[in-house]
Design brief:
By secondary structure, the chain is α/β, with parallel strands linked by helices. The chain has helices at residues 16-27, 58-65, 85-100, 122-134, 136-150, 186-199; strands at residues 7-11, 31-36, 48-52, 70-73, 104-110, 155-161, 163-165, 172-175, 183-185, 208-211. The model has no long low-confidence stretch (mean pLDDT 92).
């Protein structure tokens, strides 16, 4: 898809990473349907259409996804979110994407979603042990969401990160098994999501944002 302008539906577009992705994608000339839930803090434009969307609601997903070429999901766990929000959303999303014949999807999750052959750093291991103790449903939800996508016929990519931060972006490379960077800038994640869409790369893979 190099240099090809796409119509992209963005789920959780009003989150901290989603808003950055919108800026990157618009700067590259893509047209966006920005799915927002609860409070909206985004201004629409000629190429940015704001659409209210609860990603677990299939009718609202249809409205967001209709006529789009690809989908990016930045759904994550925030204060007050349901324990299974990511997997419930993916289940509904897969159904609607199949119905509308949309194949390409990029999703974001944590490195608590492990794959055989992963190179796990000591910091990564300890951080995820802490999450398993404090909030095990958060990791289990990410794992379940990955299983749903793996069982689908979609051309999915799951980006994995250790810890998202509002830090200065730094050089990174996507590697199938890592190891992961400790601090990952939200700008890096937004750029990585757009790169795999434009390059149509890492199909049915779970790359990790790693140091160069």
């Amino acid at each position: 898809m190099d240099d090809q302008k796409m119509k992209i539906a963005v789920i959780a577009a009003n989150g901290r990473t989603g808003r950055i992705f919108l800026d990157y994608a618009l700067a590259r000339g893509h047209e966006l349907n920005a799915g927002v839930h609860n409070k909206n803090n985004i201004l629409g434009s000629e190429k940015l259409h704001i659409i209210n969307c609860d990603a677990t609601n299939k009718e609202e997903l249809r409205n967001l996804l209709k006529g789009q070429d690809a989908v990016v999901s930045f759904i994550g766990h925030v204060k007050g979110s349901r324990p299974w929000v990511q997997s419930e959303s993916m289940k509904a999303l897969v159904e609607v994407m199949n119905e509308l014949k949309i194949k390409r999807l990029v999703s974001l999750t944590g490195t608590g979603v492990r794959e055989h052959g992963d190179k796990i750093t000591l910091i990564d291991r300890f951080l995820n042990i802490g999450i398993k103790i404090i909030d095990p449903k958060r990791i289990n939800d990410g794992i379940k969401h990955a299983k749903i996508l793996k069982a689908s016929s979609l051309d999915w990519t799951i980006l994995r990160v250790t810890k998202l931060q509002n830090t200065t972006p730094r050089p990174f490379i996507l590697k199938e098994h890592g190891p992961s960077k400790f601090y990952v800038s939200r700008e890096d994640v937004a750029r990585a999501a757009l790169e795999v869409l434009e390059d149509n790369s890492f199909i049915k893979m779970l790359p990790i944002l790693s140091r160069r």
